[in-house]
Amino acid sequence: MKIREALKQQREQRHWSQQELADQLQISRQSISKWERGAALPSFANVVAISDLFHLSIDQLIRGDAELMTKLTVKKEEDIGPVGRIIYGGLFWGAIGFLITWALGIGYEDAEELVQLPLVIVFVSLLLTIYANQKQHRVPLSRAVIWLSIGLIALMVLPMISMDVSAAMAAIPGNVRAGWNAGQRGGW
């Protein structure tokens, strides 16, 4: 028996609506609907929660569902996970921010001052979002937490990139730097 059939059977035996089951599992009704239609598969954490709720072994839930067993046992290599997305996203957007500040001719000191207020705002927003998620007993990182973390890293990296480029530019001999600066002003 596939998990979608077992889930629907267990829910109907208890005379629960999809919303009532969703409330028990602290997820959306749409997730239950997708699982029962076979449009999506539950995560391992949700399989454990379903198993606990219906007093069924995990084996009873997934043994007949080859697709779910494959999903739970084979980790996608290309999926870097939320922490990887936060780190790579932050570095990417920090580099984009650097390119924008460089194109606008904003130096290290100005860039550092420019990001201080957004940095504080993003940090406080991140803390409030994490607090709200914990209060709702959501364990995985929400999209808001991931995006706020990316923004935080990007804002933290921007002045560092500007400082490193400024230091590298200072080390370039004067005649090369003069040509570089002329190129920045459209002299090339």
Please supply descriptive tags for the structure shown above.
188 residues; mainly alpha; 434 Repressor (Amino-terminal Domain); 2 domains; 10 helices; 0% strand; elongated
What does this protein structure show overall?
- The chain is built from ten helices and no strands.
- The chain has 188 residues and is mainly alpha-helical.
- Helix 7 packs across helix 9 and helix 8 packs antiparallel against helix 9.
- The longest helix has 29 residues.
**Helical/strand content category:** mainly alpha
Residue-averaged pLDDT: 78
| Ends distance | 70 Å
Calculate Rg over CA atoms.
25 Å
SSE layout:
Layout: H1 3-13, H2 18-25, H3 29-37, H4 44-54, H5 58-62, H6 66-73, H7 81-103, H8 108-135, H9 143-171, H10 174-184
Helix pairs in contact: 2-3, 7-9, 8-9
Would you kindly provide a brief summary of this structure?
With 188 residues, the protein is mainly α.
